[in-house]
Amino acid sequence: MSGEKTGKKKKRNTNLRLVKSGETVQEKKKGKRGRRREKRPEKLRFSKAKRIGILAAVFSCLLLILAGGFFYVIHNYRVTTVRVDGNVHYTNEEIMEMVMGGRFGDNSLFLSLKYRDKGIEGVPFVETMDVDIEAKDTIRITVYEKALAGYVRYLGRYVYFDKDGIVVETSEEETAGIPQVTGLTFDHVILHEPLPVDKPELFDEILNITQQLAKYELSADRIYFDNAYQVTLYFGDARVTLGENKDIDEKIMKLQYILPDLLGKSGTLDMREYSEDTKTYSFEQD
Asked: What CATH number was assigned to the domain covering residues 81-145?
């Protein structure tokens, strides 16, 4: 009997707790709860009013930065110098108004963005206009006008044509430096199509005459073709008869020395007969 009692194990009390010396059970419980709280960091929380205030402050700072940048650009990129090249039909002021018109049109930064990689098209008598920003206060406008050989009057309008006789523009205003061509017969005008004249090769002759006049800085008021297509140039009240399309270049070259004596006079200078030895031409005064 005693042997059987010795072999039995005692059951362990599950409610038994080991407490270290000097530590109470209550302190041990508190320590575990403290460690649990340390593992969960507290989140930083703002009230709704504070969040709105922070957003308002950030937004206000952004507005101040944008306003400062805007005023800096407005005051430091103001255009004070404009250079205009290539314009004949329009004045410098008219070109500037076309390019710089509208809000912020005098700001070089705005203009550089507006005309970046593109010219200005759709302007009468102008092929295109380029705008270059040379400095923050300086721009250059280069005008490329359409090549005009002359104009005719039709139904009260000025009809301008190019070297091929193509009608490029019609206007109620006359352009200085472009001669009027008279003596041509046609019954209609269509924009961007040739003038319907009987002798289309006349346009080559007209272009040559205008180029030669420009070469020697002569400005004829009118180029007249008679029934035989012989040419007469008008300079005010003075008329210069060049005759048929022969030796035109040489005649105009000599005309540059004769014309100053004709200005203010009324009459006809006959240059139909030309030779290299001819030094004087007859002038019949009205």
From this structure: 3.10.20
Domain spans of the chain?
Answer: 81-145, 150-285
Helix axes 202-215, 248-262, angle to 10 degrees: 50
Each of the 286 residues of the chain gets a pLDDT tens digit; together they read: 444 444 555 555 555 565 555 555 555 555 555 555 555 555 556 677 777 777 877 887 888 777 777 777 677 888 999 999 998 888 899 999 999 988 888 888 888 888 887 778 888 888 899 999 899 899 999 999 888 889 999 999 999 998 889 998 898 988 877 889 999 999 999 998 999 998 888 888 998 998 899 899 998 999 999 999 999 999 999 999 999 888 899 999 999 999 998 888 899 999 988 777 777 788 888 8
Distance (Å, whole) CA 233 – CA 80: 44
What is the third-level CATH fold of 150-285? Rossmann fold (3.40.50)
Q: Are 222 and 231 in contact (CB under 8 A)?
A: no
CA 165 to chain centre: 28
DSSP-based helix, strand, coil % in the chain, nearest 5? 35, 25, 45
Query: What is the Cα–Cα distance from 210 to 221, expressed in whole angstroms?
Result: 11
Beta bridge pairs of residue 81? 138
For residues 257 and 252, give the distance between their C-alpha atoms in angstroms, rounded to a whole number: 9
Q: Which residues contact residue 206 at a Cβ distance below 8 angstroms, ignoring those fewer than 6 apart?
A: 149, 150, 163, 181, 223
